[in-house]
């Protein structure tokens, strides 16, 4: 052969073919707000494109909102999602030149699936159903969806609905199954949905072994105290062992229920965090991007011998893997990464170690999470503000502080962009939206206190049993936050109610300190508490009218999780309200939050409130006989409850998180509380379970509360238990007693 006659081959080298810019986002979606949800999805796609992204990931079920619950049983929900997708693809062109990964429900083969829908250039490339349902805690996904089980692994064919088939592309079907997409330039993209990341055999492991470069996890994960670090560790470990690019998207905000989805979307490569979105924020859309050199992924994987062995085995077991790969047409390419300004961004340097993760302290979480949750409720409910019975104690002061923090966050965002969505919502809520039609400067609150004066109404509802100290604390806190504050006496109402009772029965009840029975004493305490609830709703309806404003106020409750667990509250008192931002937060965490807020916001009175002994102030005050002055109130919460807040924390975590009944709780605490005798531990455990069970009925009417603590006793959906108990716990307490007696006999014999 004459090699001298062979013509040279022209080879074109590309210096950036392995570069890809990816985007993920926090979206503040609202269940069943299909139009608003589609608008927010559209904004996220536009921002991703502007940043040069060729792949965009969205949260779980973003088109309808994650919290639709039993509305997922309605065919309308599925139909409206397809309408939204068709609008986004065909009318708004969000997938033109960008691979978009949307979250939505899909009905296929008579079953409902929670799906990822991957689209490019107005075409559906793949519908990927979720394989593991979240069914613990607040989640009930198997009630609405079926976990997908692939047979041969080659996927199925899905007939697209008519609204998709009528497009100019005339696409009739799309692949359906646990597969991944391979673009024309060789980039492979796979999907993982929320719970699949938390399972022992996560989907991303198999995808990594099959050479998938990018994995997107669209999630609907809610906030819970001290939970974020676990989620972050899972996301980082997803690529630390296997290599690859991992994108995490999440909802952020209240989508209509007790949960607050806390965002914190991330982009991770080879275990290094490249971008992180905020956890607590009032912006509806937050997009983060990163430019990555996929050669770094391939090099990282190839450098791990054990990974290579398992990848080769997986490839052989899957017969080369093509049946799970959806190969795309020539036009589908992700290796183009130029911004709208024509700039070629530099890839992230993995050697620098990535970002330092931002994880809030629990006391910050207690304040900022409920603050953002309340803002979503306020602006979406149409209310003109909040009404809070402010007693000057730790619980109601914590609620006031949370609303004050809300005003700080919203005011800051409105001042940064007076034309932005947050500023517009702020003007509407504060009834200043007429300024939007004026030619002058747009109104935004100059200080958080100015906003608080318009949206937060606080009232100290004192009786003859209330102290000057708590009245003073309430007044000073209201001034510091900026609330519209009143101080009133409700004794005339109490007297009137007792007068009716006296006329009907001829009897006058007395406090136990004045010769009355326990029943009389409790009745006199409860009537004060319940009347405060009645007065609260009266003021909530009429205070806007008094101030010459329109609308109504949402009443805020202030019972903490420990009081709910013990039942230390009056049914239909001030714990009964429209919303309770602290209903799943412990007393100890609330006190830490008050100290943090005192330092952060400069409200020094909060330190004083946190240091005061918790008291209901429903019994008569003991007066200082020598000086004729007023002593500190002798009625304290812990004395009334017969247990401390620290002990309640132990009981709550063991009962719910550790799944303990009376006997197993006793066994654990007999080790933990080694400073007590077994009989003392037994008495404490039995006392708790008695009061817990006898008061459980109160959880059936508990005010909707922000979910924060993993041991919340909320009966609505999180802590599903009976409310009629055998409060004697006959078998359980008998076993505890037998253990104690056997131990005491053994100790006596050894002596």
From TrEMBL:
GO MF terms held by the record: ATP binding; glutaminase activity; NAD+ synthase (glutamine-hydrolyzing) activity
Question: Which reactions are catalysed by this chain?
Answer: deamido-NAD(+) + L-glutamine + ATP + H2O = L-glutamate + AMP + diphosphate + NAD(+) + H(+)
Q: Where is the composition biased (Basic and acidic residues)?
A: 619-636
List keywords of the entry alphabetically. ATP-binding, Ligase, NAD, Nucleotide-binding
User: Which pathway is it part of?
Assistant: Cofactor biosynthesis; NAD(+) biosynthesis; NAD(+) from deamido-NAD(+) (L-Gln route): step 1/1
CDD domains listed in its UniProt record: GAT_Gln-NAD-synth, NAD_synthase
One Pfam family this chain carries? Answer: NAD_synthase
Q: Which domain of life is it from?
A: Eukaryota
Question: Signal sequence span per UniProt?
Answer: none
| A single cellular component GO annotation | cytoplasm
Name assigned to this protein: Glutamine-dependent NAD(+) synthetase
Which source organism does the UniProt entry give? Helicotheca tamesis
Source taxonomy: Eukaryota, Sar, Stramenopiles, Ochrophyta, Bacillariophyta
């Amino acid at each position: 052969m004459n090699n001298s006659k062979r013509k040279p081959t022209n080879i074109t080298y590309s210096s950036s073919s392995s570069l890809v810019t990816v985007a993920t986002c926090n979206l503040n979606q609202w269940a069943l707000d299909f139009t608003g949800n589609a608008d927010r999805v559209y904004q996220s796609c536009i921002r991703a494109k502007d940043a040069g992204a060729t792949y965009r990931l969205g949260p779980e079920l973003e088109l309808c909102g994650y919290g639709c619950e039993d509305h997922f049983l309605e065919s309308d929900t599925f139909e409206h999602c397809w309408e939204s997708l068709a609008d986004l693809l065909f009318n708004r062109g969000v997938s033109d030149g960008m691979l978009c990964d949307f979250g939505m429900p899909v009905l296929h083969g008579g079953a409902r699936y929670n799906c990822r829908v991957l689209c490019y250039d107005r075409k559906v490339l793949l519908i990927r159903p979720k394989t593991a349902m979240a069914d613990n805690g607040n989640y009930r996904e198997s009630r609405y969806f079926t976990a997908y089980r692939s047979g041969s692994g080659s996927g199925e064919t899905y007939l697209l609905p008519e609204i998709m088939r009528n497009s100019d592309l005339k696409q009739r079907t799309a692949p359906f199954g646990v597969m991944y997409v391979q673009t024309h330039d060789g980039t492979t993209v796979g999907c993982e949905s929320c719970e699949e990341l938390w399972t022992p055999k996560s989907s991303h492991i198999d995808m990594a072994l099959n050479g998938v470069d990018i994995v997107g996890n669209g999630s609907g994960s809610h906030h819970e105290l001290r939970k974020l670090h676990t989620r972050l560790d899972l996301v980082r470990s997803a690529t630390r062992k296997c290599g690859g690019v991992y994108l995490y998207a999440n909802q952020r905000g209240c989508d209509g229920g007790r949960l607050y989805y806390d965002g914190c979307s991330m982009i991770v490569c080879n275990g290094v965090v490249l971008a992180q979105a905020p956890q607590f924020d009032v912006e509806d859309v937050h997009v983060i991007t990163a430019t990555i050199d996929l050669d770094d992924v391939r090099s990282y994987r190839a450098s791990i011998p054990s990974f290579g062995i398992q990848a080769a085995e997986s490839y052989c077991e899957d017969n080369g893997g093509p049946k799970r790969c959806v190969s795309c047409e020539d036009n589908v390419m992700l290796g183009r990464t130029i911004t709208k300004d024509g700039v070629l961004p530099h890839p992230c340097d993995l050697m620098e170690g990535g970002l330092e993760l931002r994880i809030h302290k629990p006391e910050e979480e207690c304040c900022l999470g409920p603050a953002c949750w309340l803002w979503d409720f306020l602006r979406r409910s149409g209310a003109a503000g909040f009404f809070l019975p402010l007693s000057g104690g730790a619980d109601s002061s914590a609620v006031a502080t949370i609303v004050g923090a809300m005003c700080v966050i919203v005011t800051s965002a409105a001042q940064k962009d007076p034309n932005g969505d947050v500023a517009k919502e702020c003007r509407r809520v504060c009834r200043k939206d007429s300024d939007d039609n004026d030619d002058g400067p747009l109104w935004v609150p100059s200080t958080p206190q100015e906003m608080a004066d318009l949206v937060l109404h606080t009232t100290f509802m004192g009786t003859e049993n209330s102290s000057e100290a708590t009245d003073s604390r309430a007044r000073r806190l209201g001034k510091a936050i900026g609330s519209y504050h009143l101080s009133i006496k409700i004794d005339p109402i109490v007297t009137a109610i007792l007068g009716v009772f006296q006329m009907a029965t001829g009897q006058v009840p007395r406090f136990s300190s004045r010769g009355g029975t326990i029943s009389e004493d409790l009745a006199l305490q409860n009537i004060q508490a319940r009347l405060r609830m009645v007065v609260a709703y009266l003021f909530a309806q009429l205070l806007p009218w008094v101030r010459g404003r329109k609308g109504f106020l949402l009443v805020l409750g202030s019972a903490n999780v420990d009081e709910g667990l013990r039942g230390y509250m009056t049914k239909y008192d001030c714990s009964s309200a429209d919303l309770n931002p602290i209903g799943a937060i412990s007393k100890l965490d609330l006190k830490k939050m008050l100290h943090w807020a005192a330092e952060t916001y400069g409200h020094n009175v909060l330190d004083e409130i946190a240091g005061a002994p918790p008291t209901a102030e429903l019994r008569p005050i003991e007066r200082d006989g020598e000086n004729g002055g007023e002593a500190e109130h002798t009625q304290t919460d812990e004395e009334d409850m017969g247990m401390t807040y620290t002990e309640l924390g132990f009981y709550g975590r063991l009962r719910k998180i550790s799944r303990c009944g009376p006997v197993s709780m006793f066994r654990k605490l007999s080790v933990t509380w080694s400073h007590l005798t077994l009989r003392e531990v037994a008495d404490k455990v039995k006392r708790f379970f008695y009061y817990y069970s006898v008061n459980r009925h109160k959880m059936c009417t508990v005010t909707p509360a922000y979910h924060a603590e993993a041991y919340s006793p909320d009966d609505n959906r999180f802590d599903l238990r009976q409310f009629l108990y055998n409060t004697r716990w006959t078998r359980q307490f008998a076993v505890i007693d037998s253990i104690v007696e056997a131990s005491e006999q053994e100790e006596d014999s050894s002596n």
